[in-house]
Amino acid sequence: MKAVPSNATGMLQDANDNRWLDQLTRLIGKRSKLGKLLDGYRQLKEANDICSHFSRYLQPLIASNEDLKSQVFQIRHNVYCNELGFEPIRENGEETDEFDRYAKYCLIEHLNTQQYAGTVRIVTPQKSDDKLPIEKYCLDSITNASLNPTNFARQDICEVSRLAVPNVFRRRQMDRFAGAATGAINYSTYSETELRCFPFIAVGLYFSAAALAMHENIKHAYVMMEPRLARSMGFVGIRFEQIGPVVDYHGKRAPYYINQKLLYKSLTPGFRVMLEHIQKSIELSARNQ
Predict the structure, then answer these.
(1) Cα(207)–Cα(276) distance, rounded to whole angstroms?
(2) What percent of the chain has pLDDT above 70?
(3) Alpha-carbon gap, residue 179 to 172, rounded angstroms
(4) Phi and psi of 79, rounded to 5°?
(5) Residues 249/227/240/231 CA torsion (nearest 10 deg)
(6) How far is CA 246 from CA 42, 227, 255, in A?
(7) What digits encode the pLDDT tens for the residues 155-185?
(8) Residues in contact with 176: Cβ distance below 8 Å, sequence separation at least 6, in sequence order
(9) Residue 129, helix vs strand vs coil
């Protein structure tokens, strides 16, 4: 029998525990009193597992100074210019646009290597002529008139955009590791236990953007994304509301809307704990600016 690496033991034990709890709950029945207690315990355990695995290796922070902003722009350049070709190559190796004049940024730091595992921004218009990217390029695609961003005060809206994860932290399709929708992490660089966190990086970035928006008292958030990604977010309980049809904008994307009530409405217990942890990290980062 092939030996189980020591750093995978906890991961396998957690998986076995969760399967055992699922089987026992199904056997007893979720609606029974004992079944409800077991299901509640399973959800609490899931919450603790998700939060502990994320917080052990990854730390969200606000990119408030020029050095951190430069890291943001370099990650974006590597992803949006070098890799995807969505934007032209820049001589300084930093991707910026007109919306960065009134944007705020988050980074997720990988604690063991002190490398940045991803970045995201929220565009936060303040003046009457400050536009969201969705307003400038895709306003006609918004068919839900009641949720058109032009209905709300500028300081009450934001757009989540320029989410980018460096390829060393992403999964590639040509790699052989099971469960990789878009690839796998390099096993020679990261431990097997750490691999549990990396599928959550994109979720962590959206939570970081949400935490930053809530810190800024922003009420309405917009994002252009692939419907497939929106459905994936739905698996963890992040229910974006689609407010228009799919259009061709850096690929097939649709406009989506979310607010704090919608965010919390369907969030699974594990990811609710993760969001609360990220909120604390963002608040601490804000105080340390």
Answers:
(1) 9
(2) 73
(3) 11
(4) -80, -50
(5) -160
(6) 38, 8, 8
(7) 999 999 999 888 887 654 433 333 222 222 3
(8) 184
(9) coil
**How many angstroms separate the CA atoms of 97 and 200, rounded?**
27
Residue 127 pLDDT exceeds 70:
yes
Residue 79 contacts residue 243 (beta carbons within 8 Å) = no
Q: Which has the closest alpha carbon to 117: 67, 188, 190?
A: 190
- Give the three-class secondary structure for 141: helix
With CA atoms as reference, report the closest residue to 126 among 102, 105, 104, 150: 102
**DSSP label at residue 87:** S
pTM: 0.78
Using left for φ > 0, alpha for ψ between -120 and 50, and beta otherwise, residue 179 falls in left
Cβ burial, residue 8 (10 Å; 0-12/13-18/19+): middle
Rounded CA-CA distance 78/180 in Å is 22
Rg (CA), the chain: 20
Backbone torsions φ then ψ of 42, nearest 5 degrees: -60, -45
C-alpha to C-alpha distance for 198 and 218, rounded to whole angstroms: 28
74: left (phi over 0), alpha (psi -120 to 50) or beta: alpha
Backbone angles phi, psi at 96, to 5 degrees: -135, 165
Tens of pLDDT, residues 209-236: 999 999 999 999 999 988 877 887 887 7
E strand map for the chain: 58-62, 103-110, 115-123, 157-164, 220-225, 241-242, 247-248, 252-258
* Ramachandran assignment for 93, one of left (phi > 0), alpha (psi -120 to 50 degrees), beta (any other): left
- Report strand pairing: 220-225 vs 103-110: unpaired
Strands 58-62 and 157-164: unpaired
